[in-house]
Amino acid sequence: MTVSGWNLDSDQMCPQRLVLEHVTSRWGVLALIALEERSHRFSELRRALGRVSEKMLTQTLQTLERDGLVHRDAKPVIPPRVDYSLTDLGREAAEQVRALAAWTERRMDDVHKARAAYDEARS
Amino acid sequence: MTVSGWNLDSDQMCPQRLVLEHVTSRWGVLALIALEERSHRFSELRRALGRVSEKMLTQTLQTLERDGLVHRDAKPVIPPRVDYSLTDLGREAAEQVRALAAWTERRMDDVHKARAAYDEARS
DNA sequence: CGGTATCCAAAAGGATACTG
DNA sequence: CAGTATCCTTTTGGATACCG
């Protein structure tokens, strides 16, 4: 992989860059990891993700659904019930971001040490 | 991996989440991929990354340096010459983000199809 | 319950001018 | 050349109110 092809062209990102932003976005990462474990209702996801606003969760899920990563199953009952789950594509995406997340977790100690050394050298 | 531990606590993200944001940031991704190939001078990186402002490139490189992913070598010459390269930790990070980037590239067709179907169903 | 619409505050990002 | 400092625009995110 080269950096060319991931550049911005005039006034716009390359399309794969947008997908990368969707899956690594603040709530996208958490939604994918939560949904990898099991399907969730909207309100379950809200609780699982902590302090996400309705607007941001809706926006995140719609983006991931549009990209074909998340499946939305709205049951026609009252009160409404909507279940979210991963598609096969979404499961692949979740594995990728989980791998990246796991790496940051594994190396967090090294990062902390590096930061301490960096800050020390400048104080 | 569970989603707990990646939540926000009160008014702040968990630390590994910040590292993930650094390496997946707009310019962080491109800088890591460019530096994985070879070390670059500041101005070389500016050109390689396309249309990044000096401010954002500086900020990105400082963040990655502080996290211990990038090595900054400022030679005491006139005019100044500063070379950036990856540390061992940074090389690991670059491999991870490149894997994720490669996945989005591989699956871009599926995403496009999903988007077309999504948009079609709503028009 | 699971959203949408609107408004507003905060943060990110960039253009420009300047410096060692 | 490789930054820093300042200002300003754009984007993001959340709070609130309302709807089917």
Fold and architecture overview:
The structure is a homodimer of 123-residue chains. With 123 residues, chain A is of the alpha+beta class. Chain A has one domain: Arc Repressor Mutant, subunit A. Chain A has six helices and five strands, in the order ββααβααββαα. Chain A has helices at residues 15-24, 26-37, 42-49, 54-66, 88-106, 108-121; strands at residues 8-9, 12-13, 40-41, 70-75, 81-86. Chain A has a three-stranded antiparallel beta sheet with strand order 3-5-4. A two-stranded antiparallel ribbon of chain A has the order 1-2. In chain A, a hairpin with a 2-residue loop joins strand 1 (8-9) and strand 2. In chain A, helix 2 crosses helix 5. The longest helix of chain A is centred in the last third of the chain and has 19 residues, at 88-106. The N and C termini of chain A lie far apart (39 Å). Chain A binds a DNA duplex (20 and 20 nucleotides) through residues 26, 41-43, 52-56, 58-59, 74, 78-82.
